[in-house]
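As described in the Methods, two query proteins were run sequentially through the folding procedure within a single session, without resetting any intermediate state between them. The first query and its resulting structure tokens are shown here.
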Amino acid sequence: MLKRLVLLFFSITVFSLTHQSSADITIKELIFSNDKPFHLKLLDTLPNEAKIQYGPEEAENTIIEFMDYFCGYCKKIHPELINIVNERDDVRLVFLQFPIISESSKIISKFVIAANFQNKGFDLHHSIFSMSGSITQKKLDDAIRKTGINKTQLNIDIGRPDIDQMIQLSSFLAGGAGARGTPAIFINEEFIGGYIPKQQIINLLK
């Protein structure tokens, strides 16, 4: 536990020093405050552009998934998570970047966060996980076009240094929370490393 807290301390401190609009939560609040559950405090450490959200902001239940776009189980669980939100009005999903499989994982993560600056992050995220077969450049270009993203602006935003910092921070948070692979999921306060079937997720909701 101490190692995790040190890691979280380091990652948030680095981000706060290098990102102008740093997180609204302090280190002390994250580690010692009991004003809200730990998984929600994790979200407070990240700027909005780093979070791919689907579902109502004030939902009673929050599911957080640390994921990688080249993770087969992340792709498997994606439609199940979307279905849960579509079937209920008390659940929100928050997808966070944890690109650990390959360098290509990080590149796709940068595309999605850059799209979030155009309020198209979820659209591109969903399109990528809805692709049949493997991710290719042609499929990615088609997804960008179909979601109505301004590609010129996207290419500019991909070069923003704060996008790299957001990915670094969410990856640090994943490791600090206990993730050793993807998917890694918070279902409210319950942390689960690995894939979990839809019905088991529903059983853990309020």
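Immediately afterward, the second query was submitted; its sequence and tokens are:
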Amino acid sequence: MPRGRPRKIEPKDALKTAMHTLWERGYDRTSMADLVSATGMAKPGLYANLGDKDEIFQKALRLYQEEIGAALVNHLVNSPETLKQSLRTALRGVLHAKEGSGLPEGCFIVNNSFACSAQSQQLKQALKDLNFERRDAFLLRLRRAETEGELPDSTDINAIADFFAGQAAAISSMAQAGLSLTELDKMIEVSLSVLPEDPPRGGAQG
């Protein structure tokens, strides 16, 4: 019997699958053969629609930002929650895979920032820029908290922004290493303990 026509694979579906593969395996440990196998798209078709490995990785970064990263950053900066709760939500945002989303462990950006020895300088810079964007989001939220009286005027918000950006990376790495959600939540709560106590409200206390 004649074989049926192969199922057509849409480039957008192939890119999403490629993103998950690069997220789970990392750039260094993912080959074009891995991407061909994961997407089910023939190698010539994959090159024609998505490009080489570097181009696919760049497109996967953009897709991650559009579908996941931008929403996390926007929520952190504009959250109506208290400072502590908004930071808790942001740190828990890197644990979405632990909560049944079907996504790989950790953060796509952080995972690949730590495993990028074979990447081009352009890709390393793209990852660096996205990590700075995350740091700047923490800084914007802390600046707002300072303006709204949630932090003492003497607070070094730049240092705290650096700290929480670093904690997000550490928590992502530990999630990828297999720590349980309970253990990761404990890490988050310890991180939040560095925040200065809220300044007194309603005048000086006697």
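The chain has a mean pLDDT of 86. We note this only descriptively and draw no conclusion about the first query from it.
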